Amino acid sequence: MTDLSLPDRQTLMRSELPHVIDAPAPGTPLIEALPGLREQIDARLLTTGAVLFRGFGVDGAAGFRAFAAAFGHPLLNYEFGSTPRSKVTQGVYTSTEYPAHQSIPLHNEQAYTREWPMKIWFYCEIAAPKGGETPIADSRAIYRAVDPATRERFASRGLMYVRNYGNGLDVPWQQVFNTDERAQVEAYCARHGIDYEWKDDGELRTRQRVQGVATHPVTGEAVWFNQAHLFHVSGLAPEMREVLLDAVGEEDLPRNVCYGDGAPIPDAELDAVRAVLDEQKVVFPWLQGDILMLDNMLTAHAREPFSGPRKVVVAMAQGHGSGDLG
């Protein structure tokens, strides 16, 4: 593996993540090199789950879009999103627009719903001078490390995500569904098995029962595949949790999650999951021009806090779903 100059060598030794493909010469156009790299990419993506392209010429967001699209699947729109993003060009979006001082925990993209991208790409146009890494982790290793009793409960009972949009507390439903028309929201929910409710104040509440774990459709491996640790009220800072519960009550929290049968998930269970995620996290530094390609089911991703300018854009493709969970 290419030396990533990590300060913590033990972190890298725990994992093969990511597999690095270096340009044969600095600035080699990545789109031109792709045909000769496809066999290596396809193999490594299904084994390590993450491929990092370093030292290639990309030609900005347009070149990044062309590279991602060259894998043969139409790039996906960011629909039913849980975080704010902005469209850069067709099929390319900013990474999650959270304040720079905040970290974003490990997660698989859109694992809180029944449909998600199988492939996701990150392109580092500007690397932050301090921090701003995109940590990754093997979802198979996470699955194996989670307590077996927790795995069984998540697998057999599934999860129910509850979202209350807008009111200055979370992303407005108009942004999440990319429309101002209630009828279009209702049609989307009907197609995707989402229960919806228009509240008296005109805002929207949705509920959706989804998977807690999943099986990769190609490798057949079990993966930890959910965002319960992000949606659950225990993920809030204690003072924020108290303020929100006092202000709106549990039913109107911006987001929360329970088991698929409606039973609450104990805080301690998700605290243990968070500890596993922290143990599995692999951090590497961004260099300007890097592209990271992930199999979204095999590899989770995150974001570290940063200072200074940072620009990382994202593309997704190859939609896949878990089917009807009832």
Task: Explain briefly what this protein structure is.
The protein is 29% helix and 27% strand.
N to C succession of SSEs: HEHEHEEEEEEHHEHHEEEEHHEHEEEE
Rg over CA atoms, rounded to whole Å, is: 20 Å
Unreliable residue stretches:
1-14
Q: What strand line-up does the widest sheet have?
A: 1-2-15-6-18-4-3
Distance between the amino and carboxyl termini: 45 Å
Mean pLDDT: 90
Beta-strand portion reads 25-35%
Helix content: 25-40%
The 3D shape can be described as globular
- Please, how many helices? 10
Got a strand count? 18
The main β sheet shows up as: 7 strands, mixed
Q: Given the helix and strand composition, which structural class is it?
A: alpha+beta
Organism: Cupriavidus respiraculi
Pfam families: TauD
Keywords: Antibiotic biosynthesis, Oxidoreductase
Protein name: TauD/TfdA-like domain-containing protein
Mind sketching the topology for me?
Elements: H1 9-13, E1 19-22, H2 30-47, E2 50-54, H3 60-69, E3 87-89, E4 92-94, E5 104-107, E6 115-126, E7 130-131, E8 136-138, H4 139-145, H5 148-157, E9 159-164, H6 173-176, H7 182-191, E10 195-198, E11 204-210, E12 213-215, E13 222-224, H8 228-231, H9 238-248, E14 255-259, H10 267-280, E15 291-295, E16 299-303, E17 306-307, E18 311-321
Parallel strand pairs: 1-2
Antiparallel strand pairs: 2-15, 3-4, 4-18, 5-16, 6-15, 6-18, 7-17, 8-16, 9-11, 9-14, 10-11, 12-13
